[in-house]
């Protein structure tokens, strides 16, 4: 094993996919599969024990999900990079993973070269996203910039919630995506309506979409 070898922990609750990926990555000269985990709690425990360079993390796992596992690993061992590799294509999961501290996000349709490139980049301190995901990240921040300029009366959190409202997300979805209580979301939504002088959600969506939000 050379000094350049990247030690990887794989976390996925599907043994066929997890073991197949372990064989694939283990066959490469510059990657060592340090361990595997079948759920988020195992991932957190093994990350602390094995101290890999990168954790490749699924999202939907029993017990502790991949988002919370990522958050705990990023908090406990910020030098470990997390690459989320998931079937989840929705924006809420993508941005929840980013907020949790993931430095890479790929869909499970990614090929070997894309996965290896993401692992290598994250191991060297970079952030990397698959092409379709990167496009959505760019769209999100373009929309955020529009919101900042068009709705300066809103707080950053209110702008974030307005963006999700414009995308058609219900309050329960917004609360889950932003890790807020339903009451906090309701209070923010009420503040948004008051500041934008709109009567209801439908009117707020129209105003937000006219400003370029919620179209990605």
Could you describe the 3D structure shown?
This protein is of the alpha/beta class and 216 residues long. It has two domains: 6-129, Rossmann fold (3-Layer(aba) Sandwich); 136-210, Winged helix-like DNA-binding domain superfamily/Winged helix DNA-binding domain (Arc Repressor Mutant, subunit A). It has helices at 15-26, 40-50, 66-76, 91-100, 112-123, 131-150, 156-166, 171-178, 182-196, 201-210, and strands spanning 6-11, 31-37, 54-57, 81-86, 104-107, 128-129. The protein has a six-stranded parallel beta sheet, with helices on both faces. Helix 4 links the parallel strand 4 (81-86) and strand 5 (104-107). The protein is elongated, with a radius of gyration of 19 Å.
List key phrases describing it.
10 helices, 216 residues, Arc Repressor Mutant, subunit A, WalR-like, alpha/beta, elongated, six-stranded parallel beta sheet, Rossmann fold
State which percent range the strand residues make up. Answer: 5-15%
- Per CATH, which architecture of the largest domain? 3-Layer(aba) Sandwich
Major sheet size, sense and barrel closure: 6 strands, parallel
- Helix amount, in percent? 55-70%
Termini, distance in Å?
44 Å
Which of globular, elongated, flat, extended, rod-shaped describes the shape?
elongated
- The main sheet orders its strands as 2-1-3-4-5-6
H and E string: EHEHEHEHEHEHHHHH
What Rg, in angstroms, do the CA atoms define?
A: 19 Å
Number of domains: 2
């Amino acid at each position: 094993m050379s000094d350049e070898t990247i030690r990887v922990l794989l976390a996925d609750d599907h043994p066929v996919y997890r073991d197949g990926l372990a064989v694939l990555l283990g066959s490469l000269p510059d990657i060592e599969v340090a361990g595997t985990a079948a759920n988020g709690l195992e991932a957190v425990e093994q990350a602390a024990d094995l101290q890999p360079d990168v954790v490749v993390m699924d999202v939907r796992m029993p017990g502790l999900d991949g988002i919370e596992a990522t958050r705990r690993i990023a908090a406990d061992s910020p030098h470990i990079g997390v690459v989320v590799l998931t079937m989840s294509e929705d924006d809420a999961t993508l941005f929840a993973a980013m907020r949790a501290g993931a430095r890479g996000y790929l869909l499970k349709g990614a090929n070997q070269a894309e996965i290896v490139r993401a692992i290598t980049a994250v191991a060297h301190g970079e952030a990397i996203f698959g092409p379709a995901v990167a496009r959505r990240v760019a769209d999100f921040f373009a929309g955020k910039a529009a919101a900042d300029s068009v709705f300066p009366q809103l707080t950053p959190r209110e702008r974030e919630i307005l963006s999700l409202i414009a995308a058609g997300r219900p309050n329960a979805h917004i609360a889950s995506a932003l890790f807020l209580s339903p009451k906090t979301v309701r209070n923010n939504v009420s503040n948004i309506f008051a500041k934008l002088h709109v009567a209801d959600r439908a009117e707020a969506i129209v105003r937000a979409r006219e400003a370029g939000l919620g179209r990605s």
